[in-house]
Design a protein that fits this description.
The protein contains six helices and eight strands. By secondary structure, it is α+β, with helices and mostly antiparallel strands. The protein has two domains: 107 residues, Beta Barrel (OB fold (Dihydrolipoamide Acetyltransferase, E2P)), CATH 2.40.50; 76 residues, no CATH class. A hairpin with a 3-residue loop joins strand 6 and strand 7. The structure holds zinc ion.
């Protein structure tokens, strides 16, 4: 089975509890001496087998191998990947049955991460996730004061549109944000705007 490591927590001795997003679920597993294995790392894509699924204890990871990305030598890209995975983790933690959409979203993002600006990939993935969950709000109303939006907007977590003055935020053209929602691409946005959107993502889902 293949999966992305969403979190690694220390257990007793050098054992670890590893949460993995696969195409079917997000589940926690026990890994003996996981702390000694460098491939048990946040955000890594691994191939693995599971044993002990019927016991009262956590199932155990075995035969773990690393499916590497070509950008893993670039520390700045790894850091951004860690940030992106960290905001997804609480949203996807321990869900027994999960649509394969989430695994495929990370697979697609990881394949683009080396070739494109990772912040753009993250923003586009985040929009796709919100749309998949039906959480993109196209209402022309400020989320804070419920008055009509104007030409410029600011964004809260979940890309909820507000008057910039209501959330003390930088301003973005509303038409650009609507276009981002509709096309799921950041191509019309400049890098400064993408930096701002990435900072909004870091507030969570
Ligand atoms: Zn407002």
């Amino acid at each position: 089975m293949k999966g992305f490591i969403l979190s690694v927590k220390n257990a007793k001795n050098e054992d670890t509890i590893v949460t993995i997003l696969s195409s079917k679920s997000s589940q926690s597993y026990y890994r003996f001496f996981g702390a000694r294995h460098s491939i048990i790392s946040l955000g890594f894509l691994i191939d693995f087998e599971v044993e002990g699924e019927d016991s009262r204890f956590l199932p155990r990871l075995r035969r773990v191998s690393h499916l590497s990305f070509d950008w893993l030598k670039d520390n700045s890209k790894i850091l951004l990947w860690h940030q992106f995975i960290t905001i997804l983790e609480p949203h996807l933690r321990d869900i027994e049955e999960l649509d394969e959409f989430y695994f495929n979203l990370l697979l697609e993002a990881s394949s683009k991460w080396g070739r494109q600006n990772p912040k753009r990939v993250a923003v586009e993935s985040y929009i796709k996730l919100l749309l998949f969950e039906g959480r993109v709000d196209f209402n022309n109303e400020c989320y804070i004061c419920q008055m009509p939006l104007e030409q410029f907007v600011g964004l809260m977590a979940g890309f909820k549109m507000c008057h910039p003055r209501c959330i003390y935020s930088p301003s973005l053209l509303k038409t650009s944000i609507i276009e981002l929602f509709q096309t799921q691409t950041t191509i019309k946005l400049n890098d400064k705007e993408v930096d701002y959107l990435f900072d909004v993502i870091l507030k969570g889902i």
